[in-house]
Amino acid sequence: MKVRYNDKINPFVLFWMFSMSLIIVSCNTDDTQTVTTFDNLVLEDNFDIDGAPDSNLWAFDIGTGEDQGLDRWGNNELQYYTDRTENVKVENGFLLITARQEAFENSSYTSARLKTKGKFQQKYGRFEARIRLPYGQGMWPAFWMLGDDSDGAEWPQIGEIDIMENRGQEPTLITGSVHGPGYSAGNAESKSYTLNGDRFDTGFHVFGIEWGPDYINYYVDDVLYNQITPEDVSGEWVFNDRPFYMLLNLAIGGDFVGNPTDDTEFPQTMLIDYVRVYQK
């Protein structure tokens, strides 16, 4: 959608609009929030080599979740995750995760889900990715983290940090959340961020968190829009006892986003420019 401005608009109106925009931005943070500088880069994937994602860093979840004791990944999603080049590849400096409408292994859609489990995990730091999102009803792109479960603990006790989730039919809005015991699934602690004058599916944006022992800060393009602390959750704070690994995926349908409609266009691609992790 193009917004056109009248050349003869009243200067007072322009001043008012500018002032209101400053107020909106300034309301994203306050002096009581904890902010830490994480300036030591410890991981960077710029997706510079065409082909499959770097196997030293990325593994795949394959299927519908049944092998992990889940039915459609626990969210009534519709896709079958693969590691095929049709669904995931590195090309021209980008990681491409592509959702397709096709009959495959008793599913009507395919896509991909990557994770650094067992390859890279870290406790605390800044985790960020520069991403252009797909568009359309039923598209559910996400950049998120799960706690290491090697001690036998299960979700939600291991904790989940959703750095970015999007409903494809809402191209100006993303959500950041945490899940833990007593505040998981539909009861997660969440906050949304609305992009003014732009869309997440028409350009790249940086989604990130800065995570310390007693806070998780949520950012879009370096705008701090939310801070979650132990006082904000309704159960045990499980974000200071284990390292977490990262996930990138594009789901189709499910409880969070709803199913595709006849107007949903396929294929849809989630483009990732880079993933970076910093320590203090």
In DSSP terms, counting alpha (H) and pi (I) runs of 4 or more, how many helices?
A: 1
Class by alpha and beta content:
mainly beta
Low-confidence runs of at least 5 consecutive residues: 1-29
CATH C-level name: Mainly Beta
Distance between the termini: 41 Å
Q: Based on DSSP secondary structure assignment, what is the total number of beta strands?
A: 17
- Mean pLDDT equals 91
**Can you tell me the number of structural domains?**
1
Percentage of residues in helical conformation: under 10%
Q: If you consult CATH, what is the topology?
A: Jelly Rolls
**What is the CATH architecture term?**
Sandwich
Order of helices and strands: HEEEEEEEEEEEEEEEEE
Residue share in β-strands = 35-45%
Shape label: globular
Largest sheet: 10 strands, mixed
Evaluate the radius of gyration. Answer: 19 Å
Which helices and strands occur, and which strands form pairs?
Blueprint: H1 11-26, E1 40-45, E2 59-61, E3 79-81, E4 88-91, E5 94-104, E6 107-111, E7 113-115, E8 125-132, E9 139-147, E10 160-165, E11 173-179, E12 189-194, E13 205-212, E14 215-220, E15 223-228, E16 244-252, E17 268-279
Parallel strand pairs: 3-6
Antiparallel strand pairs: 1-17, 2-7, 4-5, 5-6, 5-17, 7-16, 8-13, 8-17, 9-10, 9-16, 10-11, 11-12, 13-14, 14-15
